[in-house]
Amino acid sequence: MNTEPAPLSSRRARAAVTLGATVVLAAGYLVRPTTPTATTAIDERPAPILQDAVRSREAGTMVRRLQEVASQNRRFSARVVAPAPPLERWSDWSDPPEPQGERYGVVVDARRVVGRVGDLPEGTSVDVVLGDGRHLRGSVRGRVAAEPLGLIEVDTAEPLRPPAASDAVAPGDAAVATAPGASGPLVAPVFVAGVRDGAILLTAPVDRLDGMPVFAADGSLVGVIAASASRTTVLPLDAALRPPAPAGPPRPMLGVTLTLREARDEGGALLVSEVAAGGAAARAGLRQGDQLVEIDGQTVATLEAAVSRLTGSNDPVTRVRVRRGSRTLERRIDRTTLARP
Amino acid sequence: MNQILSVGLILLVALAAGHVAQRIRLPEVTGYLLIGVLIGPAALDVITHENLEALALLSEVALGLILFGIGTIFQPSLLRRLGSRALAITAAEAFGACVLVTAGMALAGVPGAVAILLGVAAMETAPATTLMVLREYHARGPLTDMVLALLALNNVVVLITFGIVAAGLGLALGTAASLYASVHGLFWGTAGSLALGALAGLLLDAWVGRIASTSETMTLAIGTVLLTVGASRALGLSPLIATLAVGATLANTGGHVEALVEELRRADPPLYAVFFVLAGAELPVALLPRIGLTGLAYVALRTLGKVGGAWLATRRSDLPPAARRNLGVCLLSSSSLAIGLTIQVRQQFPDLAEAVSAVVLAAVIVFEIVGPILARSALFKAGETTVAVPQPAA
Fold first, then answer.
1. Which of A227, A199, A202 has its CA nearest to residue A212?
2. Which of A173, B158, B215, B303 has the fewest CB atoms lying closer than 10 Å?
3. Who among B77, B195, B340 is closest to A25 (CB)?
């Protein structure tokens, strides 16, 4: 029989291990590096999605936390109900215009909400349904820089409370867009991909949610969705509330419509689904069915990237490379040759 | 369905699946895993993703108790007998798999960083699956002793290696916050986890001596393990290393470890059943057809590395020849740690995550199903099963 005592059988050994372990834990915890929180410009690498997830199940915890944030802060959000457009023509009775879709907004001060007004004329009376259930009457009082948003002044005895603005967000931060939908609360977890020129870029498109506020995990307001800037942009309130820039000469359009189609053998393919007759793209020789491969020498894999490159450039000439059947063609789209009315 | 209903269903289908597995001479754990695949989101979706999330706690409990049990084998007598040899075999089989997989993937054109991460994931041996097979067949003998020791050491070595590799790659690729953050992360993940486990183990030992009732002993042990897992997660430590350390500390206090482990084993069967059915339900079976040539090469190279490494390291040892021949195949199961590593890869190296995940997860499916079957066969060939395959009651 082995009579050697176990290493930790003596009091002295246990005390030493206890002391050593406590020192290691305390020291390690005290000197831990802090997580940076300053905003950073987006770089070429995609940002980590979740900051503190260790296992996939923590994604569920994160989503539950965001749902709580949404529930607590939905009172700052609003749904704007505009009057239905009048049926002006006989044909409207049998073929009514497309519904505008939901309009959302967020409280900005004691009497005003900024929300999606689209092309509603100034002075239009609207219903504003707040996230806390209150129904208020309001009227459109001007546009802001971030189309299609505008200011709505509401008629309320009790002043509205705007949410606290977030200090900073960082790539990888989780946030949540929320508003009272027509058939129940809407909650959409989103993730910050980066910050560029004051706008917060998300990792996924959030179109049709214009005007919806986005809250960080701590409940502060990150900004408001303004998909007109890009389909993945959230604007901080101060940027969203800037007055609209004076109208300049109309920007020439390229006259091309793109779709993203899943091609089974090659992954997603960006296809030209329509080329407007007489447009710059038609003059350059693009045809329906062409697969867009490169724009200005850069490979484009997503619809957002393609639209961003095609519309974001100030260069009047855009070089594109397309695949047509088995051939690869280079085309130059020259916007300066567009005939103006 | 609600969580209580799902747990009840899991237990009953696991019971049935275990019986069926035994009838066709497969390990029970294979039955649990396969029934989990069947009732999980990949097939019948009886157990949904929401159920899996809600029941994650049970899996954590089970894994913590499993690792605690494995940690308790680090008793002084066993360490003296097997310590240095086990360390050498662990190094050979783990790094053998790592080097072969890394080199093979790199030769196949996989980017260097991805190849290295695949190599690290290949080092892992699933502790729970392998332990379950050993227990089902009441395995006893030199092969079993060595496999138990290797299970414990393997996980510690893999976690430390991943920490070092992740820190190095993070600095090389520029995705790490700083050199200090990488070094601290490595230190905190290993030394901090060991320290937490040691404290919890000493606490457990101090208290259990004052308890006479066996049910209170089980409450204390389960509570301590859960406390350790929870504290690890709150502090950003590794629950695996911490719970291993709890068991190892207890094993070296000269006290009550065997009685405690015996008591805990009574709680094992339902927890193991739930754990493995959930593990099966979580297996991304849809990825299997996408395993591709890269995945098949990964499977082949990992197998060669583990089996070959173990054989090379035991060639001149005093293990019986049957044990030497069959040691490597007992180490092939792969699961939660590999999956956990792919998640950390997704977090730290999102560019590489897709490539790494697809290969590792598809390979995990293969090894989780095939591994226990091979381990069972190895135990029989080595003559270390002390009972015949149990026949179901007539």
1. A227
2. B215
3. B195
With an 8 Å Cβ cutoff, are B347 and A24 in contact?
Answer: no
CA distance B236 to chain A (A): 9
Both tokens of residue B272? 């193991």
Smallest CA–CA distance from A47 into chain B, residue: B350
Whether the CB-CB separation of B237 and B190 falls below 8 Å is answered with no
Angle at alpha carbon of residue B295, lines to B371 and B49, rounded to 5°:
70
The answer to whether the beta carbons of residues A247 and A268 sit under 8 Å apart is no
The reply to whether B177 touches chain A by the CB within 8 Å rule is: yes
Give buried/exposed letters for B167-200 (b at 16+ CB in 10 A, else e). bebbbeeebbeeeebbbbbbebbbbbbbbbbbbb
Contact with chain A for residue B391, Cβ under 8 A: no
Distance (Å) from the C-alpha of residue A5 to the closest C-alpha of chain B? 7
Nearest to A5 among B187, B188, B254 (CB): B254
Which residue shows structure tokens 């004052």? B210
| Interval B258-310: pLDDT, tens | 777 777 777 777 878 888 888 888 777 777 776 778 888 889 999 999 999 99
pTM beyond 0.80: no
Cα–Cα nearest to B272, from B75, B74, B47, B30: B30
pLDDT at residue A265, rounded to an integer:
42
Ranked by mean pLDDT, the top range of A46-55, A321-330, B207-216 is A321-330
Please tell me which of A22-31, B61-70, B167-176 the model is most confident about, judged by mean pLDDT: A22-31
- For residue B192, the chain A residue with the least C-alpha distance is A25
Among partner residues A24, A46, A55, which is closest to B350 by beta-carbon distance?
A46
B292 touches A: beta carbon within 8 Å? no
